[in-house]
Amino acid sequence: MSDSVVIIPTYNEIENIESIIRAVFSLHKSFDILIVDDNSPDQTGEKVLALQEEFDSRLFLEKREKKAGLGTAYVHGFQWALSRKYEFIFEMDADFSHNPQDLEKLYNACKFNGADVAIGSRYITGVNVVNWPLSRVLMSYFASFYVKMITGMKIHDATAGFMCYKRHVLETINLEKIKFIGYAFQIEMKYRAFIGKFRIIEVPIIFTDRTKGESKMSNAIIKEAVFGVISLRIRKFFNRL
Fold first, then answer.
1. pLDDT score at 121
2. Pairwise CA distance, residues 210 & 228, whole Å
3. Helical H segments across the chain, by residue range
4. pTM metric for this prediction
5. Could you report the per-residue pLDDT of 177-236, keeping only the tens digit for each?
6. Dihedral angle sign, alpha carbons of residues 221, 224, 229, 233
7. C-beta of residue 208 within 8 angstroms of C-beta of residue 96
8. Backbone angles phi, psi at 19, to 5 degrees
9. Closest-CA residue to 120 (of 81, 91, 160, 84)
10. Reduced to 3 states, what is the DSSP secondary structure of residue 95?
């Protein structure tokens, strides 16, 4: 068993799932993988089950009954990982927008460079995004600026979803209190780590938009993130986080 597990939430990722699994398992550093699938109608979960025969004891599947949001998928995965002996717990998308080779950079930041939380950051060294329209880049970039202004976090990429957490961070954060289910979840997790005074390091990556499958972004997700940041700050002010 590896000391590290990569949690990949999926919904209709049949075009990417086998390739991303093989890419992670081809790395020099050994990682286990947990797929949290929301009962994808395109048979993503069934494909993972078939691959488990090849990657016995390294590839795991948690299949949920229905689509229930990114945040709840990650909380499910975190709880699964904490019930085992993993010391480093990762978040990563299935669509290759996160380069699997950068997993080792995040691992090194936590293992050797003193980070409690490592963020694969698109904006720590400028704007490192490929294949996004300018409108999407600007929305993402200014969303992080907005989060920084409201929360006081000195994080350049507050909405990043490519992460490594040391085990003790997730043991300290009360996962049962995580409120948000969309991309606001990423902000909430970083904010809870920030107010917990954990050391957060941003590691520069290049983010490449998906070429296969469909984006899960929606207006409801954007709205949750915008108003969720204010909610976090208010709840912190009244000691209700």
1. 97
2. 26
3. 17-25, 44-52, 70-82, 103-111, 134-151, 167-172, 184-195, 219-237
4. 0.90
5. 998 877 789 999 999 999 999 999 999 999 998 777 665 555 565 666 566 777 777 777
6. negative
7. yes
8. -65, -40
9. 160
10. coil
Look at the chain and count its residues: 241
Contact indicator for 179, 97 with CB cutoff of 8 Å:
no
Instruction: Tell me if residue 78 falls in helix, strand or coil.
Output: helix
Please name which of 218, 177, 216 lies closest in space to residue 196, comparing C-alpha atoms: 177
Taking alpha carbons only, the member of 83, 100, 117 closest to residue 1 is 83
Q: What is the pLDDT of residues 4-42, one digit of tens each?
A: 999 999 999 999 999 999 999 999 999 999 999 999 999
- Token digits of residue 219: 């207006």
- What is the Cα–Cα distance from 231 to 235, expressed in whole angstroms? 6
DSSP annotation of 177: G
- Taking the C-alpha atoms of residue 188 and residue 176, their distance in angstroms, rounded to an integer, is 13
Contact 205, 102 (CB under 8 A): yes
Query: Rounded to the nearest 5°, which phi and psi values hold at 127?
Result: -115, 105
